[in-house]
Amino acid sequence: xxxxxxxxxxxxxxxxxxxxxxxxxxxAETELQVLETAIRLAKTGKVDMLRAGIWKPRTKPGxxxxxxxxxxxxxxxxxxxxxxxxxxxVATAKHVEDSLKxxxxxxxxxxxxxxxxxxxxxxxxxxxxxxIPILVKNPINPDIELWxxxxxxxxxxxxxxxxxxxxxxxxYGNTEFRNAPMWHLPxxxxxRMPELPLICDPSHxxxxxxxxxxxxxxxxxxDYDGIMLETHIDxxxxxxxxxxxITPEALGQLLDAIVWRx
Length: 262
Ligand code: PEP
Ligand code: MN
Hints:
The protein has helices spanning 7-15, 31-44, 70-82, 93-101, 111-114, 117-126, 144-156, 184-192, 202-206, 212-221, 248-257; strands at residues 20-24, 49-52, 86-89, 106-109, 134-137, 162-166, 169-170, 179-180, 198-200, 226-230. The protein is an alpha/beta fold. The strands form two sheets. An eight-stranded parallel barrel has the order 1-2-3-4-5-6-9-10, surrounded by six helices. A two-stranded antiparallel ribbon has the order 7-8. Phosphoenolpyruvate is lined by residues 26, 53, 57, 110-112, 137, 167, 204. Keywords: Transferase.
């Protein structure tokens, strides 16, 4: 399939408030998994962009920490085959350098990185003079100034296309959501920076499959500019975030069930 969308067309869609749908596995695991996910997502006709974690910030050592740079070649191939542009999480200057080498279209900063100004600055410095959109996830703690600080660090190195991703805020113990949505925080962010595209990540807010639709619908009702949802060809056996991933076809059904804004 020919590539139809580009970082620029995705950015335009975000700015025009036509909700952008980003999907793909929590982690790139194998070449086959990445290619099959991309093909099945493209087949739904409802997905704008392919996401995948290449370097994974895990809570404990010994968990799967990402396939690393080799996975970027799989993603590049997936983009060629499916026509879906790519977005990847970056946490270091090396991640930025490698992602740019493999033609990643949009970068994102993860919640565990946004909490650390040294890391955010390292990523920002690696992007000086580069023209690429970047999305900054909220920090895991409910600190809106830190979130804004991350966004400001990107703006200060000259990046012009900056957006935010709301993925919820960490909790202690068993709670309804893996990460409390605290909807008032992204709403306040948007009040302070009205031009900033805002994307919701129901997968990391929920941590489960059964309420993804409800969270995604709320984001659309609140006028978000896009949603990012994790998908896997075999969700129960995913190497990370197995409980919250759904198949590409289930994503297609979820997207059909959303009442979109007119
Ligand atoms: C992810 O998107 O897979 C991820 C690691 O998310 P977060 O940074 O929100 O935890
Ligand atoms: Mn994940």
